[in-house]
Amino acid sequence: MTRKQILQLVCASYTKEKLDDKKVTKIASLLKRKDLKSYVRALKLQEKKSTVNIALPQAAVYNSSKRIFFDLFPGKSITVSEDKLLLLGGKIIADDMVYDFSLKNRLEDFLMDLENQYDEE
């Protein structure tokens, strides 16, 4: 099966921009092992492209600023997780880009800079 055919199957796996479990199951049952691996890999990649993961120290923060995320990432599904280690700020993962606006990250960067300056002297 060609890459183009696999991509067509991936597109056919969606209903109204949502992954349809019934379609995926039907397609998967008809594919050979090698083609199934390619299909699953392409599905994962498509899901990764269409999903934005947001980690926040408190989920309540997301509820008050939900509209902002939908405006920043139109047409993408947004998943929110709670990560108490972030302290303040947040972490956004969209496609292959990671945006880390957390206090934890700032403090780690500060310590690295401090250690680098200390090592130079």
How would you concisely characterize the structure shown here?
This protein is an alpha+beta fold.
Describe what you observe in this structure.
There is one protein chain. The protein has 121 residues and is α+β, with helices and mostly antiparallel strands. The protein folds into 2 domains: 3-49; 51-120, no CATH class. Helix content is 56%, strand content 20%. The protein has helices spanning 3-12, 21-30, 33-49, 59-64, 66-72, 103-120; strands spanning 14-15, 18-19, 51-56, 77-82, 91-94, 97-100. A 4-stranded mixed beta sheet has the order 4-3-5-6. α1 (3-12) packs across α3 (33-49). The longest helix is centred in the last third of the chain and has 18 residues, at 103-120. The N and C termini lie far apart (60 Å).
List the helices and strands and how they pair.
Blueprint: H1 3-12, E1 14-15, E2 18-19, H2 21-30, H3 33-49, E3 51-56, H4 59-64, H5 66-72, E4 77-82, E5 91-94, E6 97-100, H6 103-120
Parallel strand pairs: 3-4
Antiparallel strand pairs: 1-2, 3-5, 5-6
**Overall SS class:** alpha+beta
Element-by-element helix/strand order:
HEEHHEHHEEEH
Global mean pLDDT: 85
Widest beta sheet: strand line-up: 4-3-5-6
Give the N-terminus to C-terminus distance in angstroms. 60 Å
How much of the residues is beta strand, in percent?
15-25%
Helical amount among residues, as a percent range?
55-70%
Instruction: Please give the domain count.
Output: 2
Oligomer: single chain
Give the CA-based shape: elongated
